[in-house]
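queue> pop job 88
queue> type: inverse folding (structure -> sequence)
queue> payload:
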């Protein structure tokens, strides 16, 4: 077990946005979080990253309650790529990625060779090496997103949390990013909308509806015609792809 949510409740005003959510994310695996707009995916990810505190229930990291960790310790091990991440406009790509190393540095230690190696590897893995000296404000939306992923990788996290990371990416970079995330050794939790991507790349899925988990399991267990109709209100035909051994969902026209 790496991250565990234990009966989480989070409210805004009188509205219960996260309503008794419990699950465990398996160490080193990619857990996809699905659900219609407004079902609570972003709110759940923010609770898991420690950016919000639950009104009840607990988030556990390796068996210890998240709220008992120092902020710096959380920053050393949990990386969160937010949906609408912003960054100071005066920085270069390399500077943004270097920010990922900060939680690991002390007041006394200078920039080390290990920091350089980690930053270079993160730029390489996200295809941003050639743009390392470009100004942040000159990047396209997709390049900004890839730079945020590079910063998260430079953080060398144990847990990686991603909120719709393929937004803004062209199809090549969507596939590259999903391949990368699914091949990483850390525990990853990713909200996403594309059900075929979820089927292809995630080890397990959670489906949220109105703040509750309404299905959980492998893509084969979760992505049924019935669920797609009940939760997403779409008619779909689901089959094992002849091109890869994962499910493929055909939506009715
Ligand atoms: N700060 C806030 N103020 C008011 N309402 C909020 C706030 N944060 C979340 N909500 C409400 O909580 C519900 C869940 O929002 P959330 O962003 O978690 O959903 P989501 O599943 O990530 O949606 P989407 O797929 O559209 O990104 C929505 O109805 C939203 O309006």
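queue> result:
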């Amino acid at each position: 077990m790496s991250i565990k949510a234990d009966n989480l409740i989070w409210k805004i005003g009188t509205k219960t946005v996260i309503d008794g959510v419990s699950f465990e994310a398996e160490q080193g695996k990619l857990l996809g979080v699905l659900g219609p707009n407004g079902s609570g995916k972003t709110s759940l990810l923010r609770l898991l990253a420690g950016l919000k505190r639950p009104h009840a229930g607990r988030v556990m990291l390796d068996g210890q309650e998240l709220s008992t960790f120092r902020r710096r310790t959380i920053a050393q091990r949990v990386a969160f790529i937010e949906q609408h991440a912003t960054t100071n406009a005066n920085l270069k790509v390399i500077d943004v990625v270097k920010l990922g190393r900060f939680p690991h540095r002390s007041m006394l230690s200078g920039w080390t060779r290990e920091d350089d190696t980690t930053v270079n590897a993160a730029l390489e893995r996200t295809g941003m090496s050639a743009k390392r000296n470009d100004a942040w404000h000159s990047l396209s939306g997709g390049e900004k997103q890839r730079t945020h992923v590079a910063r998260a990788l430079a953080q060398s996290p144990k847990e990686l949390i991603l909120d719709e990371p393929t937004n803004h990416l062209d199809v090549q970079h969507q596939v590259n990013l999903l391949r990368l995330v699914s091949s990483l050794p850390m525990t990853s939790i990713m909200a996403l909308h594309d059900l075929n991507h979820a089927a292809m790349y995630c080890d397990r899925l959670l489906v949220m509806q109105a703040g509750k988990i309404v299905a959980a399991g492998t893509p084969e267990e979760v992505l049924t015609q019935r669920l797609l109709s009940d939760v997403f209100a779409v008619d779909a035909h689901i089959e094992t792809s002849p091109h890869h051994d994962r499910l493929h969902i055909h939506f009715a026209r």
